[in-house]
Amino acid sequence: MIRAYKFLMRPTVGQAAALGEMLRDHCSLYNGALQERRDAYRHVSMTSVKYGQQSAQLKDIRAFDPERQGRWSFSSQQATLRRLDKAFTAFFRRVKAGDKPGYPRFRGATWFDTVDFPKDGDGCRWDSTPHDPVTRVRLQGVGHVKVNQHRPLVGKVKTVSVKREGRKWFVVLTAEQPQPEPLPPTGSVVGIDLGIASFLTTSNGEHFASPRHARKAAAKLEATQQALSRFPRRKAKDRTGNHQRAVEKVGRLNGKVRRQRLDHAHKMALDLVRAHDFIAHEDLKIRNMSKAPAPKPDPGTSGVFLPNGAAAKAGLNRSIADAGWGVFLTILHAKAESAGREVIAVNPRNTSRTCPECGHTAKENRPTQEKFHCIACGHTAHADVVGATNVLRAGLVRRNANQA
Fold first, then answer.
1. How far is CA 153 from CA 73, 174, 312, in A?
2. C-alpha span between 244 and 46 (Å, rounded)
3. Cα–Cα distance between 284 and 263 in angstroms, integer?
4. Is residue 385 exposed (0-12), middle (13-18) or buried (19+ Cβ within 10 Å)?
5. 11, exposed or middle or buried, with CB in 10 Å at 0-12, 13-18, 19+?
6. Rounded (10°) angle between helices 241-275 and 325-339
7. pLDDT tier at 204, thresholds 50, 70, 90
8. Mean pLDDT across the stretch 311-329?
9. So where are the chain's domains?
10. What is the largest distance, in Å, between two alpha-carbon atoms of the chain?
11. Buried b / exposed e along 93-111 (16+ C-beta atoms within 10 A)
């Protein structure tokens, strides 16, 4: 299996400057390749430029500009071109599916924060000596950078990435390692229902409150964003000291919220994986759930729109984003795979409207957000517990069908 490790780097002042130049030059390469694709399609009879053609030009680009492009790893530049190629592949896939296309955009200086090295030893070298207290990573054009390796790395390093977050630098490694020993069986199965008021409700009747990290930090975020809005929009190189500090303060607060949400997701997923052999959850289409409502034109007046509940939906969308369901489910599946547990996603349709006692399904079975009252048999319970129970039953049915 493949596992990722993220370690803090401790570059010197000169190395930090070199790392910034590396990001800048890779960003320039990305934007130049994007411009070439746009120009070829618009002006050369709608010709499509592929990754192979752009990769073949790298040798000439490096020879033409040895100071900016020739000093960096050839394979890392190929990885940057592959990133652009993946962006176009995803664009055409969305066009074919009828979704909002989202044409690939040019990257600004603060939008390009990662450089990938596809193979350890090709332009980079992870140097972790067991008897050496200092761990380093060697990067072509930068040198040997100290790394704060806070935990042991297991397996053979496959890829290396350098990532910038604010003023900090991180190295992200992927390592190939054998499948770990599964956790001992517990004999427990559970269904979970994700929500807004309660982050998670289990079929056993347990409720876990939503931490609402973004809402708790909303006042500080609003104040820092208002302070930032007083400065005119400028490029990063033209900002004053106060402007740059305001930008960094907003970034630090948003980064703290993101880390809090990630920490909560890891802990919650780990508790579930340790306690249960089988976990069923709803197959939520989070992107569809958080879409803004379509405008409603007034048929009687041109240019006038009717109320469409956009303000209320915006508040719901913020709560959905703050809950972080997608991150939690991704982590849950990864931890379950490592622990030898089974996780199954089921169709969420009518899970909270179906009576677990008699099976009657009706909208009226859920008179309020929390209360479930079956109009057929009179069964009452918490609506989220009912949803989690039905999710568990659907998951067990699907597991038995797969085994058969």
1. 24, 10, 47
2. 42
3. 21
4. buried
5. buried
6. 50
7. very high
8. 90
9. 10-146, 189-403
10. 79
11. eeeeeeeeeeebeebeeee
- In a 13 Å sphere around the CA of 119, the CA atoms on its Cβ side amount to 6
More confident residue, 328 or 298: 328
| CA nearest to 115, candidates 145, 150, 156, 149 | 145
Tokens of 349: 């349709």
Query: Residue 274: left (phi > 0), alpha (psi -120 to 50), or beta?
Result: alpha
> Are 323 and 213 a contacting pair, CB within 8 Å?
no
Radius of gyration of the chain (CA): 26
| Separation between Cα atoms, residue 342 and residue 403, nearest integer Å | 12
**The two structure tokens encoding residue 78:** 């190929």
Q: What is the mean pLDDT of the chain?
A: 92
d(CA 52, CA 235): 33
Measure the CA–CA gap between 360 and 355, rounded to whole angstroms: 5
Instruction: Work out the pLDDT band at 26, boundaries 50, 70, 90.
Output: very high
Which of 202, 228, 230, 196 has its CA nearest to residue 215?
196
Cβ-in-10-Å burial (0-12, 13-18, 19+) of 336 comes to: buried
**What are the residues whose beta carbons fall under 8 Å from the beta carbon of 211, sequence distance 6 or more?**
199, 260, 261, 264
In the DSSP assignment, the letter for residue 109 is: T
Taking the C-alpha atoms of residue 273 and residue 277, their distance in angstroms, rounded to an integer, is 7
Phi and psi at 305, nearest 5°, equal -120, 145
Tokens 């006038």 found at:
304
Dihedrals phi, psi of 354, to nearest 5 degrees: -100, 130
Non-local CB neighbours of 159 within 8 Å, separated by 6+ positions: 116, 117, 118, 119, 120, 173, 174
Q: How confident is the model at residue 258 (pLDDT cuts 50, 70, 90)?
A: very high
Distance CA 287, CA 317 (A): 10
Single-letter residue type at 243: H
Whole-structure pTM value: 0.86
